[in-house]
Amino acid sequence: MVSRALCALPVLGCVGGSSVRAAMGARGIAAGALIWSSRKRCFCSIHANAGSNASATAVEDAEIRPAKKPVDEAVTPRSQDFSRWYLDVIDAAELADYGPVRGTMVIRPYGYAIWEFVQSWLDAKFKETGHSNMYFPQLIPYSFIEKETSHVEGFSPELALVTIGGGKELEEKLVVRPTSETMVNHMFAQWIRSHRDLPLLVNQWANVTRWERRTKPFIRTLEFLWQEGHTAHATAQEAEEEALRMIEVYRTFAVEQAAMPVIVGRKSRLERFAGATCTYTIEAMMGDRRALQAGTSHNLGQNFARAFETQFTDVNGDLQHIWQTSWGMSTRMVGGIIMTHGDDKGLMLPPKLAPIQVVIVPIWKKGDEQESVLQAAHKVESLVRAAGIRVKLDTFDQRTPGWKFNHWELKGVPIRIEIGPKDVANNSVVVARRDVPGKAGKEFGIFMERSVLIDHLRAKLDDIQSSLLARATEFRDSNIVDVNSYEELKAVIAEGKWARGPWCGSDDNETTVKEETGATIRCFPFDQPEAKTCIFTNKTTHEVAIFAKSY
């Protein structure tokens, strides 16, 4: 799978489409380029002498989709082309593939297994903090979206609409869920009557649709999976505490499970969620030093409650609007894990999220060695599995051991156990770490006895988890530069790094920075160093902001 340009094509029921010819020009689709037509289910070529109608027909419902690399071909080196490397890894490691509709993806079993580990940890934590799972409808009346002004303005360009149902035009168009605040408030208004009904704490696991023009698997797709929490409270303080509690849950997951160091902070007014009074975020640095917003928690204040008249009687019998939060993390986290830890060999998965933590590769040359090696390999597999470690025994005999080593390294398995005839004779195995390449990462003569082997594997898995976090933290910290002027900020951003500096600029000032550098305010971090003079306005300020280019 290689880097491709996606055409912004007119789509029925999509707000904010553009013409086919403009899309071709904007994406640089050259004459003779092969593109995939989901209508014709084949590759089509665009020719220079084709008329406008022919061009439109050829690229309708299309996207550039170059041929995949051969199975045995190595992924593109990260340093050579990070975007191409990322797509190569997703393809070669069998994490996902492109769907037939532009901008969609099919999450393959190995990729979905990683998402399931994200789900299971978060779901348990949500329940520990008093939240219950439920489900809201995917189709939302358009009138709901219009009720909260900033919400409709923020989401309008990304909405997918349904206008026909059962062969008839609908009286009111329906929005395919981009997020659920409006639907949630419609229902909360029916369920909440008294302060005794509060707090109301719910979460749903669902898919959402946002009509993105530029897509990237896991990072930004037309449809993606996520969880979205929604809570209602009697006071502003309770809502603020909830919003902060949940961003801390996300921070804990990122650091302790994904080995992904994140900076926690508050979004600027321009970057906060449409309809929120305050948005908190965890920002991670990817391997190309771009920022990834990995999870957000929003204090919605009473904005949606007032729009939907979601009210309750307080302890004094007075009618009040509820205070709300919403918060979410999505399959974008999978993409973040790939880009944080991966290397030229492919994936490098944190053990806590790896679908396979240990792979066993039996090795033999002569036919009479096979039986004893496989017998020992099955014994080790049973020991490891009984210890609760996720293990895979690779007995496929049509590939060489070397090919298997590369294959499982590509898929990011943290530990490889090698068992050959000499190991069987010595009642031992070879243990190789994914995060330490070559012989430096190998340990020979590890005894097969359960008490030795299992303790050794557990210690190594823990060490790999902490080593990945330490490595990613060192990389991030070495690429954040403190700046004291706007000229310094521009120079740092031009180098591809993050800039941290004092800020009290206006929305217009922030827009100017974005236009001139391509960077945005990622957050005002909770951990605030001493601020001085704003790098843009030269006014005294007490806050620093972090600027970076982002996904």
Tell me about this structure:
Helices cover 35% and strands 25% of the residues. The protein has 551 residues and is an alpha+beta fold. Strands 6-10-11-17-14-13-12-25-26-24-23 form an eleven-stranded mixed sheet, with helices on both faces. Residues 1-66 have low confidence and may be disordered.
Catalogue the unreliable spans: 1-66
Question: Based on DSSP secondary structure assignment, what is the total number of beta strands?
Answer: 26
Strand content: 25-35%
**Cα shape:** globular
Helix-strand layout with pairing:
Blueprint: H1 20-27, E1 34-37, E2 42-45, H2 52-59, E3 62-64, H3 82-92, E4 96-98, E5 105-107, H4 109-128, E6 132-133, E7 139-141, H5 142-146, H6 149-155, E8 161-165, E9 168-176, H7 181-191, E10 200-209, E11 223-233, H8 236-257, E12 262-266, E13 278-285, E14 291-301, H9 303-308, E15 311-313, E16 319-321, E17 323-330, H10 332-341, E18 358-362, H11 367-386, E19 391-393, H12 401-410, E20 415-419, H13 421-425, E21 428-433, E22 442-447, H14 450-478, E23 480-482, H15 486-494, E24 498-502, H16 507-517, E25 520-525, E26 544-548
Parallel strand pairs: 6-10, 18-19, 18-20, 23-24
Antiparallel strand pairs: 1-2, 1-3, 4-5, 7-9, 8-9, 10-11, 11-17, 12-13, 12-25, 13-14, 14-17, 15-16, 20-21, 21-22, 24-26, 25-26
Descriptive keywords:
single chain; 551 residues; alpha+beta; 11-stranded mixed beta sheet; 26 strands; disordered N terminus
